[in-house]
Amino acid sequence: MKIATAAYPLDVLTSWAHYEDKLATWVAEAAAESAELLVFPEYGALELATLDGLDVASDLEKSLFATSDRIPDTDALHLRLAAEYGVHIIAASAPAATTSRPVNRARLITPTGQVGVQDKQIMTRFEDEVWGVTPGNALQVFDTVLGKIGILICYDSEFPLLGHALRECDVICVPSVTETLGGYWRVRIGSMARALENQCVTAMSSVVGPANWSEALGNSFGAGGIFTPPDKGLPQNGVLAEGVLNQPGWTYGEIDLGHIAEVRRDGIVLNRNHWQHQIGRDTPATLVRLR
């Protein structure tokens, strides 16, 4: 499988055709490199709010619903491109309105017209305390012709139990947006840790560059990255591919999932199988005073 992860800059869109052309260009470029799974970043869809004007895009509350209103059209566009190019696409996550507060929702679009929906599980402080975005549906494992795929949106990748819930996945996609270098590294370290624990591939995408029209996004740091367990037949540093920080474009990596299956069966270590050995040893540690 060849994976493409995006370092994706956001634009002030002048028309729906502007967005169609932008997305089509990105998908066509990845498909021309024989990528089969394309991963766009967290809140990458928020640029759609600019279609309603910068006064809407710059308003935290209005931008949520302006973007959510565009989801049916963006789904149709992604479905058309996935079918045209024969690719699976993790669409950039978007606020999605619910009967209460919006959730942060990513979609897996297949070339056969299927749509898998995954919501973020744990909110950052900004999402929770300022923006009012809430957790959504339970974690899903999507069984596709490429393999079993899961999604941990940004902050979710920093929690081992969420990763363990996706332990049947061959690939865990991590769409992200981070406004500091530290934020980028938190998500990258989390992605690499989940690849180690679950003996799987993780594919991280990022928003990059300024979006100063949005209080939620500001100026983002990031890069594409594809990570594996550092085991036999796989990169010994766990890095299959990494992009240049803050440089827009695709990062590509090719992985034989047979190597993942073999490492899970007979790796140098067996983290995934040995997870259960923690149970009973994970009670609060005894305090031993050595003063």
The H/E string reads EHEHHHEEEHEEHEHEEEEEEHH
Number of domains: 1
Q: What value does the Rg take, in angstroms? A: 19 Å
- SSE class: alpha/beta
CATH topology: Nitrilase/N-carbamoyl-D-aminoacid amidohydrolase
Low-confidence stretches: none
Number of strands: 14
Question: Helix coverage percent of residues?
Answer: 25-40%
- For the termini, the CA-CA separation is 55 Å
Counting DSSP H or I runs of 4 or more residues, the number of helices is 9
Second-tier CATH architecture? 4-Layer Sandwich
The biggest beta sheet reads: 12 strands, mixed
Mean pLDDT across every amino acid position: 97
Structure description:
The chain is of the alpha/beta class and 291 residues long. It has one domain (2-278): Carbon-nitrogen hydrolase (Nitrilase/N-carbamoyl-D-aminoacid amidohydrolase), CATH 3.60.110.10. It has nine helices and 14 strands. It has helices spanning 16-32, 54-57, 60-68, 71-85, 125-131, 160-165, 181-198, 257-266, 271-274; strands at residues 2-8, 37-39, 88-96, 103-109, 115-119, 142-144, 147-151, 171-176, 201-207, 209-211, 218-220, 225-227, 239-242, 249-254. The strands form two sheets. Strands 1, 2, 3, 4, 5, 6, 7, 8, 9, 12, 13 and 14 form a twelve-stranded mixed β-sheet that branches. The protein has a two-stranded antiparallel ribbon with strand order 10-11. Helix 1 packs parallel to helix 4 (71-85). The longest helix is centred in the middle third of the chain and has 18 residues, at 181-198. The chain is globular, with a radius of gyration of 19 Å. The N and C termini lie far apart (55 Å). The relative contact order is 0.15.
